Amino acid sequence: MTTPALTRRHALISAAALPLAAGLSALSGTPARARAELQGAAFPMYNRFRLGAFEVTALLAGTRSSDKPQETFGTNAPPEEFATLSEANFIPADRTQNFFTPTLVNTGAELVLFDTGLAADGTLAALSAAGIAPDQVDVVVLTHMHGDHIGGLMGADGVTPTFANARYVTGGVEHSYWSGAANEGFDKNVRPLNDKISFLDGGGSPVPGITAMEAFGHSPGHMIYMVESDGQRLAITADTANHYVWSLQKPDWEVRFDADKSAAAAARKAVFGMIAADRIPFIGYHMPFPALGYVEPLGDGFRFVAASYQMMLNG
Prior knowledge:
Blueprint: H1 8-28, E1 46-51, E2 54-59, E3 62-67, H2 79-88, E4 95-100, E5 103-106, E6 111-114, H3 120-129, E7 139-142, H4 147-150, E8 167-171, H5 172-179, H6 184-189, E9 197-200, E10 210-214, E11 223-229, E12 232-238, H7 261-278, E13 282-284, E14 292-298, E15 301-306
Parallel strand pairs: 6-7, 7-8, 8-9, 12-13
Antiparallel strand pairs: 1-2, 2-5, 3-4, 5-6, 10-11, 11-12, 13-14, 14-15
């Protein structure tokens, strides 16, 4: 089809219409540009995609910023090296944004929730935004027992389970450790559910299509999970890496919350080496939301490649 040429007559008519439109706007009393209050930074509350016959929903259960990040990340790194790496990756060296991302997997037979956030209200808000009621959750899998993963197990009253119809699955090594640790969070949130908890080791399966893998170090029995459906795979890496730059590009940099620093570094190298070699997407609990991406080898570590639309093409 041939596009009609813009004639001199058309141009004159268009030019004449401009002051008319401005005049009408002035007569109506409506300003040409609306004034609105600044709203502040915001994040979506969930991200959903297909993985074979499964459906995966990442839930933003909370996010917060903090200063002095090197008190937590890269605690054994020279400050100038920490600053240089931060600048090279376009992030500040004196501020960080942390994300808390439980993940929901719908297998078609069961609804499986991995971790529960800092508190029930944040996780419930994200679930509600995603169209899920807490009593629909069939299985809650706890990757480990740190407070930001078990904090949503109990409701606001502290005694009513948030997920009333769920059974619970966690690693046996992890549960055994915290059972004897006299930890307030564990005693409040996990211990009351003990009669509903089943335990597994590496290679165990909470439901068909999902397999546990040992990644000890961040906590004594920290586990990750491989989700597979119709030949497609997704790794749920929990806290194997706590930051997409300072933990992935420098896996030997120590993290304050890692219980066993050397074991945690070895786990980062092994887990993300596997993910990089097999080009498997992953969801990391503290990665920038929607916490979904890939890694590729970079020097002694890995570069995080955030997913764009790849997973959306599966549906």
